[in-house]
Amino acid sequence: MANFAIDAKKENTYDAIVIGSGISGGWAAKELTGKGLRTLVLERGRDVRHVTDYPTTMLNPWEFEHRGQLRKEVRDANPIISKCYAFYEGSEHFFVKDAEHPYVQEKPFDWIRGYQVGGKSLMWARQTQRWSDFDFDGPARDGFAVDWPIRYKDIAPWYSYVEKFAGISGNKDGLPQLPDGEFLPPHEWNCVEKHFQQQMATKYKDRPVIMGRAAHITKPQPIHLEQGRAQCQHRTICERGCPYGGYFSSNASTIPWAARTGKMTLRPDSVVHSIIYDEKLGRATGVRVVDANTKQMQEFYARIIFVNAAALNTNLILLNSTSSRFPNGLGNDNGLLGKYVAFHNYRAGISAQYDGYLDSTTEGKRPNSPYIPRFRNLHKQETDFLRGYAAGFSAGRISRTNNEGLGASLKENLVNPTLGGWYVGSHMMGETIPKETNYVALDSSLKDPFGIPQLKISVGYDDNDEKMVKDYIEQMTEMFTAAGFTNIRTRDDKRNPGLDIHEMGGVRMGKDPKTSLLNKWNQIHNVKNVFVTDGACMTSTSTQNPSLTYMALSARAVDYAVKQMNAKAL
Ligand SMILES: Cc1cc2nc3c(=O)[nH]c(=O)nc-3n(C[C@H](O)[C@H](O)[C@H](O)COP(=O)(O)OP(=O)(O)OC[C@H]3O[C@@H](n4cnc5c(N)ncnc54)[C@H](O)[C@@H]3O)c2cc1C
Ligand code: SF4
Q1: What pLDDT is attached to residue 317?
Q2: Which of 180, 182, 363, 402 lies 20 to 30 Å from 39 when distance is taken between CA atoms?
Q3: Which residue(s) pair with 396 in the sheet?
Q4: Would 249 be classed as within a structural domain?
Q5: Which domain holds residue 422?
Q6: Among all ligands shown, which has an atom nearest to the Cα of 123?
Q7: What is the number of structural domains in the chain?
Q8: What is the dihedral of CA 146, 147, 152, 156, to 10 degrees?
Q9: pTM for this one?
Q10: Which ligand 1 atom is nearest residue 45's CA?
C-alpha cells in the first residue's frame, strides 16, 4: 500500500504548477516549459482548442439563429454579464453566466469572467500599452498605496520580450508617459480622426492623439508564423476566437507553444481550492484541486507554484489557503491580503458630430482605434484630484442600409448604403486609487458549487473618482469644441466598478513585507516558492490597460524563479 501512495504522489508531482491558463498563466506556462520544467497547468474551465473550439467564428450575421442578439431569457437570467459589450450570441459561450459562479456584492460590482482554457484572452479588446515611470513612481510621488518595488527600467526588456512574441501593432510616438515598444505597423487613421489629431496638436502643447497599440499581427514576423499565426484580416469579431491567430490569445499563442515542448500537462476542469503549505519545510508543496466534473478533491505537488487565476480569484485562492502558520491566508502575516483592490474608472463618455469631409468615407473595418494618452497631473499636480485618465477616440461615417428595390437593384442598393454625416466618440479610462477599504474577503457562510467559500467584494468609487469624471467631461467637451465638432453629448453612466474588467490588487508588490505581500520578483515575501503575476500583484493601476504588464511580469518572474532553482536557492 505504502508503495502505491508513493507512486501516486510521484505521478502527481511536477517541477512547477501554474494555476490558470489565461493571459498571465499562458505566459508562465510558456516560459517555464521553455526552460525545461515539467509544468502542470491547472484550469478550472473546459478545454478550448485553437480554431476547432471557436464555433461561431466563421458564421455570417444571417447564420445566427437570433441575428447575433442575446435571447431575452439569457439577458434576464444574466443581468451582470449582459452589461458587457462583448457578450452577444456570437461570444456568449466564453463568458461566465451569473448563476453558475455566485459571489457576494457587499457593494455593487460587475465581475466579468471567462472560465476556460485561455481565460479572458479569448474575449479581450487587445489594447496593449506599456506603463511608464509616471505609473511606477506614482504612489511614491502622490503619497498613496505603497511604493512599487520596481521601475520602468526593470521591466522594459521584458516588455520587448513579450511584445515580439505576442505581436503588438503601434507607432513609435516618443511620449514619456507611454514608452514605445517593439511594434508591428500601426493601424490606419480615417480623415476625421486625423483632423482631430491635427487640431489637438495645434491647440494644445500636451495632448497628443495617437493610434492605439493593439495585440494584432499587422505584418507577421517569422516568430508569428512559427506559432501558426497569420496576418489579421480586420474582421473585428475577435471575441468569437480567431482562426487566423490574428490577435494574441493564450489559445493561439502561448499554450500551444508550451505544449510543443512536451513539458506541459494541461488539466482543464480542475478548480484549485487552495495551496498546501508544509510547516516543517517552510514552503508550499502543492495544491488541492476539486475536479469540476466529479467534485472529488485531489492533490498535485511541485517545487514552485505560479498563481495566475486572474486578480480576484487569485485573492480567493490565497485567502482560502489556511494553515496553522498562516491562519488568515497564505503569506498574510500583515493582514493586507485582499485589501487595496482597485480598478479603472470607465464611467464617462462623449459623442458628437462633424460636418466636414462629406466627400470622404471609410472602407473595411479596423479592430483598433486612436488613443489619447494621459495628460492630466503628469509633470505636476494641476487639479483637485490625484492622477489622471486616458481616453479612447474614434470617428466613423453614419451609413443607413438602403433596402429599396428587388433583385439586382436591391443588391445594388444594399452595397451602396445612404451615407449620413460623421460621428465621433470618446470614453474615459481613469486611474483609481487603491485603498484599504476597497477589499475582497471570503464569505463566512456561503459556498460555491465546489464547496469553496464565495468571494465577498467590497469595492466602490470615491470622491477622487467623481472629480475625475467631471474633469474628463469638461476637458473633452473643450477639446471636441476646439476641433469643430457639434451636437456634443456627454454622459456619466455611473456603471458599477468591475465592468472595466481591469480589477487589480489585493496581493500587492512592495519593498516591505510589513506593507505588501509580494517582493520585486512577484514572490510571496514569506513563502518564496509561490509567485503571483496576474493583476492581483499590482500596487497601483495606471491609466494604461494592464495585460501587457502582466505578460512582462510573468516572463520576468519565471526567469528569476528558474535561475533561483538552478542555484538551489529555491
Ligand atoms: C471584453 C474584455 C475586454 C478587455 N479588454 C482589454 C484590453 O483591451 N486590454 C487589456 O489589457 N485587458 C483587457 N481586458 C482584460 C484582460 O482580459 C485581463 O486583464 C487578462 O485576461 C487577465 O489575465 P489573467 O491571466 O490574469 O486572467 P484570465 O485571462 O482571466 O485567466 C485566468 C484563468 O484562471 C482560471 N481560474 C480562475 N480560478 C481558478 C481556479 N480556482 N483554479 C483553476 N483555474 C482558475 C480562469 O478560468 C481563467 O482561465 C479585457 C477583458 C474583457 C473580458
Ligand atoms: S480582426 Fe483580426 S484578429 Fe480579429 S477576428 Fe478578425 S482576423 Fe482575427
Answers
A1: 99
A2: 182
A3: 423
A4: no
A5: 175-212+344-431+461-496
A6: 1
A7: 1
A8: -60
A9: 0.97
A10: 47
